[in-house]
Every structure is written in structure tokens, then in C-alpha cells.
Specification:
This protein has helices spanning 12-45, 49-77, 79-97, 103-116, 120-131, 137-148, 150-165, 167-187, 205-208, 212-226, 229-235, 240-267, 271-289, 294-322, 328-357, 360-381. It is mainly α and 389 residues long. Residues 207-389 form the Major facilitator superfamily (MFS) profile domain.
């Protein structure tokens, strides 16, 4: 088993505990805002859907803006401390936000809660890359994302279902998730992720700038159309079970291909896979704009899955190759901050474009153009492997 995994056996238990802690925290916050408060708030607290949605946006923006500093804090104080702090603040935020009737106070609580979580993900990515076998860092980060990302959907669907029948039980589950994360954080105290930075090694701003376009665009472009998927699917005649088939097909293909594409990115070079992945995703978005039928959408899901399977591991491998290890957690924090901004601003931009042109197809074409532009950008910038210069 340990030969299959990209990480060394020593330290793997701590990494898995940290993954579980972050997964629980992701599940709790998505479950609270999108599963609990959206159902409980309008009826019991007088908070309408717009207020709840804006509070979640503020929470995510605070988390995103805080990641730049959060990466530095985890380097200085360690992953155990920042996990305990984030989970503990989440417990207080749950108690406050579940009973507050003032929108302004809800916004304030949401912002503080978001900031308190900003250090954990940079620490998780840094620890995952440090525990990986040499040459497997890109695959390690890709697998880390794959194991933690589903928790947001689990929290949303699970808590939302329980809230409809028993809001008190739903809140107890949310609180239990936070308590479990605190206990996991305690078990991580003393984990040697904090590092003393060498005086001669400065924060890699010049190297970091190369990641900003893709960090923003890779989340901004999909987010523009992501929240409009259901009405778009209805418009082209897709039913829910067909959407599930498409998601399983595309997602399953990504997981099947990542071990192969990740090995190429780690051992050979990430640049051509990165460029190819971005180009394929751009073509997929333009194809989606043509409003294909279900049989054609099956082929589109395969193409998009190939695009993501090329892009994600090559993106992670590129970060590992370029950023110096001493500053990697802080640099990850900046990259994740930019990614979060793209994710938070994408829906607003997509909604504006769709409203202006009265069609989602234009929004999809804009997203495709962004991916293709990024592909051309990295074709130029990475024409020579500058990390070897």
C-alpha cells in the first residue's frame, strides 16, 4: 500500500489526521451556510437567502485574503496550533451565527471565522509535499486535493438533509465536526512543519508572479458557469440522473488518469501537460457553449476529464519545482488566496455576463477564452524551463 501512495510511511499518520481535520472543517462550513443556515435562517432568524449567501461569500473572501499571511503563520507556529485555533474559532462562530438576527453581525462573525481558517490549507499542502517521495510531489498534492475536496459536498448534502427533519440534530453534527477537528489539531501539536527561514533567502515574489494568472483563471473561469449549471442543463434538456452520470464519468476519468499524468509531470516536465490541459479545458468550454445533447455531452465529459487530469498534477508539480522549500508554505498561502478570489468573484462575473447577453453560452465562451489565453501565456513563459536556468 505504501508503495502505491506518494508519501513516505514516516509522518503519514499525521498527514492523514490533518487531511481529516481539514475535511471536517470544510464540511462544517459548507454544511452550515449552504445546508443549515439557508434552511433554518429565513424561518427562525429572519435572514433571507441573499443575506445568507452574502455571509458565505464574506467568509470565503476572508479566508482567501487571509491565506497570504496564513502561510507565514503556519511556518512560524506550526500546523497544530493553527488547526486548533481555526477549529476553536469555528465552534464560537457556530454558536454565534446560529442565533444572530442581525445581518451585519452575521457578516462580522463570518469574516472572523474565515480568517481563522486561512493558515490550515497552506500548511496541509506544504506538509503533503514535504512527506512525498522525491519526484512524487505533484501526485501527492493532487491526491491531497482529491481526498479533501469531496467533504464540502458531503457537508452540504448531509447537513441539508438532516436540517429538513431535525435542525437541532444538524447543529449537533456541525458542532461535533468542529470538536473532532480540535482534537485532531491537539494530536498535531509539535509537528515539525515550522521552519527557520534563512536570512539570505527572500520571499520569492518574482517567481511567485508566474503563478498568479493560472491561480486566478483556473477557479474564475469554471466558477463563472458553475452556479448556472442546473438552469443550463434544464435548458438543453438534461435531467438530474444524466448530470450525475456526466460528473461520475468525468471525475472517475480524472482519478484514473492522474497516476499516469502525475508521473509524467513529476519525472519529466510539467510544462507541456500544463499547456495541454489548459488548452483542452478551453476547447471544452467552447464545446459546452454549443449546447450539445446528452450523447455528445458524454464525449465532452471525457475530454474535460482529460484536461483536468493533465492540468491539476502539472500545476502542483510546477509549484514544487519553482518555489524554494523554505518559503513554500507562505507562497502556497498567496497562491491559494488568488485561487479563492477567482472562486469568489467568478459567480458574480458569470451572472453579469449571462444577464447582459441573456444566455449562458456567452459566459461559457468567455471561460473558454480565459483557459486558452492561459495556455498561450504559459506556452510563452515556459518555452524554456527557467527553473533550471
Amino acid at each position: 500500500m505504501f508503495r502505491i501512495l506518494p508519501w513516505r510511511q514516516r509522518g503519514l499518520g499525521a498527514l492523514l489526521r490533518l487531511m481529516l481535520a481539514w475535511g471536517l472543517l470544510e464540511g462544517v462550513r459548507s454544511g452550515f451556510y449552504a445546508g443549515y443556515l439557508i434552511l433554518y435562517g429565513p424561518k427562525e432568524l429572519g435572514l433571507n437567502a441573499a443575506v445568507v449567501g452574502l455571509s458565505f461569500t464574506i467568509h470565503l473572501l476572508a479566508d482567501s485574503f487571509g491565506k497570504g499571511v496564513g502561510g507565514y503563520l503556519v511556518q512560524r507556529y506550526g500546523i497544530g496550533v493553527v488547526t486548533i485555533f481555526g477549529a476553536g474559532m469555528g465552534m464560537l462562530a457556530l454558536y454565534g451565527a446560529s442565533s444572530v438576527k442581525s445581518p451585519l453581525l452575521l457578516f462580522l462573525i463570518s469574516g472572523v471565522w474565515g480568517i481563522s481558517l486561512a493558515s490550515i490549507l497552506p500548511g496541509l499542502k506544504t506538509l503533503s509535499s514535504r512527506l512525498a517521495f522525491q519526484g512524487r510531489e505533484g501526485r501527492a498534492l493532487t491526491l491531497t486535493d482529491g481526498l479533501t475536496a469531496p467533504w464540502a459536498g458531503i457537508g452540504l448534502l448531509g447537513v441539508g438533509l438532516v436540517t429538513k427533519h431535525n435542525p437541532d440534530l444538524a447543529f449537533a453534527l456541525l458542532l461535533g465536526g468542529q470538536i473532532a477537528a480540535v482534537l485532531l489539531g491537539i494530536s498535531l501539536l509539535g509537528l515539525p512543519i515550522a521552519m527557520r527561514l534563512h536570512k539570505q533567502e527572500y520571499y520569492p515574489w518574482r517567481r511567485l508572479l508566474i503563478f498568479i494568472p493560472a491561480a486566478f483563471g483556473q477557479t474564475f473561469a469554471p466558477a463563472m458557469i458553475g452556479f448556472q449549471v442546473l438552469p443550463f442543463a434544464q435548458k438543453i434538456g438534461l435531467v438530474p440522473w444524466q448530470l450525475v452520470v456526466l460528473m461520475v464519468l468525468g471525475g472517475g476519468l480524472v482519478f484514473a488518469l492522474v497516476p499516469f499524468t502525475g508521473r509524467i509531470a513529476d519525472r519529466v516536465s510539467p510544462r507541456w501537460l500544463l499547456i495541454l490541459g489548459l488548452a483542452v479545458l478551453g476547447v471544452s468550454m467552447f464545446w459546452l457553449a454549443s449546447k450539445p445533447g446528452f450523447s455528445e455531452m458524454l464525449l465532452l465529459a471525457v475530454v474535460a476529464g482529460v484536461g483536468f487530469a493533465c492540468f491539476v498534477p502539472s500545476w502542483n508539480a510546477l509549484v514544487i519545482r519553482i518555489l524554494p522549500e523554505a518559503n513554500r508554505a507562505a507562497a502556497w498561502g498567496t497562491i491559494l488566496m488568488v485561487e479563492g478570489l477567482g472562486f469568489a468573484l467568478g459567480p458574480s462575473a458569470g451572472g453579469f455576463i449571462t444577464a447582459t447577453f441573456s444566455t449562458v453560452s456567452v459566459t461559457a465562451r468567455v471561460g473558454g477564452a480565459i483557459f486558452l489565453a492561459l495556455s498561450v501565456f504559459y506556452l510563452i513563459v515556459l518555452w524554456r524551463p527557467f527553473w533550471k536556468r
